[in-house]
Amino acid sequence: MDDIDAILTRIVTKISESPLRDTEKADIYARISAGLHHLVWPIIVSHVPQYILEDVTGNPEKVTINRYLELIEGALQNPATPKEIHDEVKGALEEVEALLNDKLPKPPKRTP
Amino acid sequence: MPEGQSLPEVEPNVPLADAVSAIFERRATHGGRELILEQYQEKFQRLIDTLPKENRDTLMVDVQKFFVKINGWFSEYGARVSDFIRNVVTSPMIRADKDFPKDVYYQLELSRAQAWGDFAMRTTKTATAARTAYRNNFLPAALTGSIVGGVGYGLYKGIEVGTLAGGLGGAVVGAALGAAIGGGVSVGMRIKDRIMGPPVIIYPLGGGVAGGIAGAGGSIASALTGRGGGGYY
Questions:
Q1: Which of A24, A39, A90, A110 would you label with A96, given CA atoms 20 to 30 Å apart?
Q2: What is the rounded distance in angstroms from the CA atom of residue B94 to the CA atom of residue B26?
Q3: Using the 8-state DSSP alphabet, how is residue B88 labeled?
Q4: What is the full DSSP assignment across B144-178?
């Protein structure tokens, strides 16, 4: 299990074992998911050369799937991009875990 | 965490979910990314939302080649983040496939996209209908006592849906469904899959049936990715 998966496992375990209602748990899962996805595009876009970005966003009618692939590949094949995405995803999950440790209601103690 | 930044202060009355969103919002907009978002996000979102429908056999080949490249770029960072990126960057291509079924999964994709768009604008504001729909996507997974079990059932449903839909979309939907309801998947694993997106399968050409089998944990994906087993891959 890689480190991101391990952090995610701890987060899901904490939430699932908490006394929150199912809708509250689902809301937190959704926020984490939406948040993680939202982290990716700004990083990718920031690594696309500006002249290419202006060309494709200024002429969306000319964009094909192949052109889209070139755009994303151009950003991701720079080793700095995957590292930045990984570091941001991992860092954000670590922050979420710390927040949950601090603020999540503790599960009720089980009586024998 | 970037240097100089600390955990956000959580006001006593701020719901925990909003505090979670605030973490991601801050990270998505620091280091000059806020300017990039302001300049390009709307245009870029429109671009990926309107990729032309392409009716050509080579689309699946392109997708598979792209999956392999992504796997290479993220190989040192682990399977989760690799699959996650595959989900994010290939989603527009999947939606551009002419055969992508306009069913509940398509609607979920749209809700998800809409929720992300809203998230970018005002993360901590009141949840929209789209975000509510997105949240509801997690409810079955959050209910710990309602696992639909059995590898056979997951395999069957994956094949059924994959076959029904056919093509690239069918394969991916079949894979997602197979992973979601396939046997041997813990509740925690299924929740993680939903958070990061379903594991993306590198599947052979041939359409939905292969995707369904792979999604239900068949040997195709395991052989190609060198990972997995059970319902996850």
A1: A110
A2: 29
A3: H
A4: TT-----HHHHHHHHHHHHHHH-HHHHHHHHHHHH
What are the pLDDT digits (tens) for B136-174?
Answer: 767 776 654 333 333 333 333 443 344 333 444 444 444
A88 touches chain B (CB under 8 A): yes
Q: What is the ipTM of this complex?
A: 0.91
How far apart CA B106 and CA B99 sit, in angstroms, is 11
Closest CA to A66 of B42, B49, B66, B83: B66
In angstroms, the Cα distances linking B102 to A7, A98, B210, B233 are 35, 40, 20, 25
- The answer, for A63 touching chain B at a CB cutoff of 8 Å, is yes
Please identify which residue in the block is written with the tokens 């280091």.
Answer: B31
Q: Which chain B residues in 171-190 lie under 8 Å from chain A, judged by CB atoms?
A: 187-188
Are B99 and B165 contacting, i.e. CB atoms less than 8 angstroms apart? yes
Question: How many angstroms from the chain centroid is the CA of residue B51?
Answer: 18
User: Nearest-5° angle of CA A99, CA A12, CA A10?
Assistant: 70
| Calpha distance A52→A48 (Å, rounded) | 7
Q: Which of A112, A84, A51, A72 is nearest to B89 (CA)?
A: A72
pTM across the whole model: 0.70
Q: What is the pLDDT of residues B36-70, one digit of tens each?
A: 766 776 777 677 767 777 666 666 677 778 888 88
